[in-house]
Amino acid sequence: MAKFSDIIGQEHIKEHLRNAISTGKVNHAYIINGERDAGKEFIAETFAMALQCERLNRDLDIYHENGTQDSFSEGSKEPGIIIEPCMECHACKQAITRNQPDIKTLIHEKPGTIGVEDVRNGIVSDVYVRPYSSKWKIYIINEAEKMSVQAQNALLKTLEEPPEYVVILLLTSNISMLLPTIISRSTVLNMRPVEDSIVRRYLMERVHVPDYQADICIAFARGNIGRAKHLATSEDFDNIKNEAVRVLKYAHEMETDDFVETMNRISEYKMSVDEYLDILLIWYRDMLLLKATNDAGSLIFKEEIRALRERAGKCSYEGIEKIIEAIGKTKSRLKANVNFELAMELLLLAIREES
Ligand SMILES: [Zn+2]
């Protein structure tokens, strides 16, 4: 639980939500659309807490009564108000411990899907109970893409005629799974990749990771702050990296069984194979870069310069590009539920052929 100012990047979303709070023009539904781990829950919880914050609401009421029309902005103390949850009032404290009665997170029985009964029980039958203490009653729906069509239709009824105090926050990593009628009734906030320099500062100053580790995490995260933090704070960072480097150095001469087993082992580190493949991609991009520029300074796997050079010497540009392509194909195959062993076998074949 945090303030808006603790959210890294996503300035456009923070500005939009702060503006909504300061003007009181809060929509009944918001869709926060962004990758897994990008921080959607963080933003939703901050927004919800700010809407409930007693001190902020009191300050805003006084401010609006005085009839001034100045805009609010971060850091503007005079004559405006900083739009942040105070973190100290009763409502904020309740929100921090996730006990705020007017902030509700939809729970669902089956992990893989949000069914119509979940929406009926959690929202439709509850929505006309007025908020206990504040102006707003907030429902947060995590992984909203898991809602069945029936569940979405049930929610739609609420969205068509929402009680004035209701705010529904739909968080999703795949907005295309939501009905157009839901999307058209919501304010869509698309998360954007955070700039590498900002991720770097965050990792070094707040997570306290060393330089070389930050480089790998940044390349791996591609602007996703949660992914960067996840890898940076993993106790297994060195294991994951060393294992990846071993695979990359020796894949071309590995037996299929050994390769499959190595790729399987990655689940021990709480990392998905999909994410692991992203780390392998960084290596091959390094190889391309090294071939093109011979500049070791801008490599991510700087420490492995000797191995990179050696492998790069044995692969053609085309060959490396083909491996990068093959990794991409492997990712889509796994998403399409192709047999794991088969997908790995095909990948290994592609690596062997080109190196
Ligand atoms: Zn507060």
Short précis:
By secondary structure, the chain is an alpha/beta fold. The chain contains 16 helices and five strands.
Regions with pLDDT < 50 over 5+ consecutive residues?
none
Q: How many β-strand stretches?
A: 5
- Helix/strand order: HEHHHEHEHEHEHHHHHHHHH
**Can you identify the CATH superfamily of the largest domain?**
P-loop containing nucleotide triphosphate hydrolases
What proportion strand?
A: 5-15%
Number of DSSP helices? 16
| Share of residues in helices | 40-55%
Query: What's the end-to-end separation, in Å?
Result: 48 Å
CATH topology of the largest domain: Rossmann fold
Q: How does this structure look, described?
A:
With 355 residues, the protein is α/β, with parallel strands linked by helices. It has two domains: 4-190, Rossmann fold; 234-354, Zinc Finger, Delta Prime, domain 3. It contains 16 helices and five strands. It has helices spanning 11-23, 40-52, 54-65, 90-96, 116-124, 149-160, 180-184, 196-206, 211-221, 225-232, 237-250, 256-265, 273-293, 305-314, 317-335, 340-354; strands spanning 29-33, 103-105, 137-141, 166-172, 187-190. A five-stranded parallel β-sheet has the order 2-3-4-1-5, with helices on one face. Strand 3 (137-141), helix 6 (149-160) and strand 4 (166-172) form a beta-alpha-beta unit. Helix 1 (11-23) runs parallel beside helix 2 and helix 13 (273-293) crosses helix 14 (305-314). The longest helix has 21 residues, at 273-293. It is elongated, with a radius of gyration of 24 Å. The model has no long low-confidence stretch (mean pLDDT 91). The structure holds zinc ion (ZN). Zinc ion binds next to helix 3 and helix 4.
